[in-house]
Amino acid sequence: MANNSEDLDLPIMGLARRGAISSSTSFESFDEMFRIEKDSRIIKLLSKVVENNLLFTHLDENERTQIFNAMSIRLYLANDIILDQNEQNEYFYILEEGEVNFYTDDQLVISFHACSCFGELALIQSTSLSMTIKAKTNVKLWRLLGETYRKILMDITINKRKVHEEFLIRVPILETLDEMERFTVADSLQSVQYEDGDIVIKQGDSGDDFFIIVEGKCIVYQKANELCETVEIDTLGPGDYFGEIALLCNRARAATLIAQGVLKCVKINRIRFERVLGPIQEILQRNISRYNSVISLDHLQRIMIDYEKKEC
Known about the structure:
With 312 residues, the protein is an alpha+beta fold. It is 30% helix and 28% strand.
């Protein structure tokens, strides 16, 4: 079927046949022509569509925006062929407007409506599509070249590793890790974000996560026992860390930390730490005599004694 999208009086039109394009590099160069600046509405829409997609959930807001800004827009008229069956698919698609149908040997298999996505496998590797994709109505699509996604992801991973490694070097209890061990831990850190007023950890709760602050601040509150009032004892910011005692043992939290504004952290728990590096005690005991926490072990032990007496 002929592609009539060129009749649209718009800056972005349906693609010419893909056979004229010979390489992924050409795909990427060709796609540059169809990239447009995205306003907050578009970013919000794209974020909503992929919020539960496993290929995006590990990325923070800035990283997702970086990928969204690499997406190009495509417009198709009703009945236009978006992709032929058995054609090599290089793209991941997000459907902003309209409806598309998927066919196998001219038999309708499934339909996708606005605010849905398809083609995730192309983000991992180029693959032949076993179905034909056809526009059921006029369609507005955002698409991302798989190679572009992989390049951006690699850059993000390398930059994260560098930043996270610098943070880990500052943690005395982990300073004996060698370079490869730091790389391994850095790659295993998970990003997490808290909003203003969110409780990050609560005194007395059990916990097994160790945190490093990437952006923002949090206030540290503590009370010595149930008879005392909670008092503010510290403010932590980028590069500070807390909860490292969780890598040693499953003890109750020694303080409450509350986000002051948007707070971005990375974290790792003891089980994950041991999975990637082995038994934690062997690593920590290399330098245990120089352990120095934001909340000292002695102080933690005193609080725990009071806490255990109360429980009894």
